[in-house]
Fold each of these.
Amino acid sequence: MEDESVYLPYFSPDGKSLLYAQSRPDTSNGFTDIWRLNKMNGSWGQAEKIDNPISTLSRESTACLSLDGTIYFSSNRNGNGLADLYCSSLENGEYRIVERLDSICSMRDEESIFIAPDEQYIIFSRYASNANGPDLFISYQDYSGNWTQPVLLNSAINTADWERRPFVSFDNRFLFFTKQIFDDNGYAESDIYWVSTQKVFKPFIFKPIPSSTIKLGEVFHLSLPADLFRDIDNENLEISLKSEKPDWARFDKAKMTLSMNPGEAGEFTLVFAAIDKHLNETECEVKIVVEE
């Protein structure tokens, strides 16, 4: 590797593989491919490039692995100059198809990706605004396998500097990341930081409730899914129906049942909230249509 530069090492959850980005000898360091080292009988083997469709003529970097061998990585292959997030699953021992994470990608650069080993959540960096550098965001996977709307992490983590390279400990207790600091003269330094995940993981909507249509004056009971909300580090969430509910709606949180006897027609939005033991709160809206 005398003519190439090596970046961004990432160990697989089982410790048997090492992914990294390596520049090409005939290009600038801005063009990298994904390479892999495998450990056999306690020794590291020969490094191999993971070829197309993962490595292309574009820039691929910040790759990581889930427990089932799915590779998540960033690439600017889209043709618009932006870095987006992609994944590729093993099929009969090969990576054959690459999928863009459309629900996460935006019109800004996304990179520096970390995938939870069980793929319950993903943390990545995004250029939050033209005036600000990369910040860290989190997205969760719901019951249907879709990624939720990315949420900006706590302001104690994200600052006016550049937050990148996230990594979460295997027990989900600590987030590690890098911060590039700038002063009046430009780039000043880059350091590694860590923080408890108490303000990283918050309740998220795992199984959304579809809208319901009911008849005016009829009593209607709606059973809410027990896993309407989930939380990575909290099993017991406090679920409530917010105070702005109509007076004809009653929520039994022990049975997770909503009872309604509407006295007026129209379209109503009920707001449920989940609070974890660290007082992180997330809301879920449920639309109720009352017909005459």
Amino acid sequence: MQAHQAEDLDTAERLYREVLELRVAQPDALHYLGVLCHQRGRSDEGVELIRTALQVTPKHPDAHNNLGNIHKECGRLREAEACYRKALECGPQHYNALSNLAVVLEAQERPQEAFEAYEKLLRQAPRYAQGHYLLGLFLRNHAQGIEHIEQSVDCFRQAYALEPRFVQALEALSVSLYVLGRTDEAVQVYRDWLAREPDNPIPRHMLAACGGAEAPQRAGDAYVRDIFDRFADSFDEQLLQNLDYRAPQVLADALGTVLPPPATTLDVLDAGCGTGLCAPLLRPHARRLAGVDLSGGMVEKARQRGGYDALDVAELTAYLQGQADAWDVVLSADTLVYFGELGPVLAAAHAALRPGGWLAFSLEAEAGDEDGVTLTASGRYRHSRTHALRALERAGFGDIRIAEDSLRKEFGQPVRSWVVLARRGGDAMPASGRLAT
């Protein structure tokens, strides 16, 4: 267990198996080896190991909770719900199981039941900072009026008061204040934070996002790396809470209108792969599927999920610049929202594609017909259609298709987005699948 906690998974797995050679049904070894197998991308094996442990100790709430976590992270929400309810039967004060139950109820579009679970959690554990934070996110994600945003402010303040190192709560507080039009308060939160941690890239970037400093041309590497490394463990869970998150599927569907039928013949790059949500959607087309992301924590989650032939940790523009004529398809889901000026990264993507290759990406939509880019209080950029179109044309792309859609909700409202396809000039993709070169 010490090796496991230290993330020395090779040693931990070897020692768990040695324990099981000495005692075949040792329940803790079965349980934690099951958790480890899931971490290493062998989720089915992990499920069976934990189920075996529960045959020995059927009233073990932690094992039921961890079994639920595997089901949740594999998208089996009903099974996860049943596990969390069983954990609460065995341990009514199991706060993690109760908060996990609230998350999967929310993900199943059962907001009233989720709200009741969050309320119960805070009645049982009023000093549980994570509970206040999760309720704040819930209120903001499902806001039906300004009062819900105001209530989220109170939740985030309470979470931070209970745990002063809980910087996610501080960041969430500032976003809610900004949404309420209390910009001066939001700016002051970031200034105070930056005064305490002058080298922290997060308050520096978010201060600019709230209008307290000049906006950079793109989010800095340190900011993006820190944000996503910090959220790697809960990233998919946060996406589950944004019930209408659809970017991977929408982009894959858009590519399906221009690519030949799936035949595992194309070289495909998932540019900004995150935890690997796009992998199963791209795999049917891919002879070779690679992913790249700036966050090492995200890449590790993608490695555990599986489906890629190669994964790299790198800044996207620099990575693409070293990949001349390497890819038939480049897909980038919700990654270019961290770039203001799109010109350099699109030029690099154009050079990385083979002639006739396709680029697919999503952006958050800026209103108006001008060539506009805005850094928003979320820390992400919005782009006008004109800006995207001109940047693609300058990069050399043709056959540009920009459609409006909503890829997720934020603050209870759909986020206007652009779904973009563009093609590098050259020979057309043959019906057999592989691009001619």
